[in-house]
Write a structure and sequence with these properties.
The protein is mainly α. It has one domain.
């Protein structure tokens, strides 16, 4: 979260235009969502409903607060589409972690 806050505090980010701003949002919040999800679950295993919902909400609310924070940074603007990209990243983190958890659970059952 600190790195995201630091990045959004800068007036401009150095990008060469080859990578979409939205893709960067999705990737950043995919990582944040995965970390929050893992922290609330205590590791990678089958996902439980309420910690998963809470992880999604924490990540999305942080994304919204980050967009609002950018209103006060010269040269930056808050964007609904950036917030939606953040939420997409959080959702993809849940899907990815759910897949990895199911894969680990299946391997644990197969291994004697």
């Amino acid at each position: 979260m600190g790195l995201l806050y630091l990045a959004s505090s800068r007036s401009s980010l150095i990008t060469d235009g080859r990578v979409s701003d939205k893709l960067l949002h999705v990737l950043a919040y995919l990582l944040l969502g995965a970390f929050v999800l893992r922290a609330l679950h205590g590791g990678v295993h089958e996902l439980r409903l309420w910690p998963t919902v809470l992880a999604f909400l924490v990540t999305v609310v942080y994304g919204i607060s980050d967009e609002l924070h950018q209103l006060y940074v010269p040269g930056r603007v808050a964007s609904v589409s950036d917030g939606l990209a953040d939420a997409l990243g959080a959702g993809l983190a849940i899907l990815l972690m759910g897949f990895l958890g199911a894969l680990c659970a299946r391997r644990a059952k197969v291994t004697p």
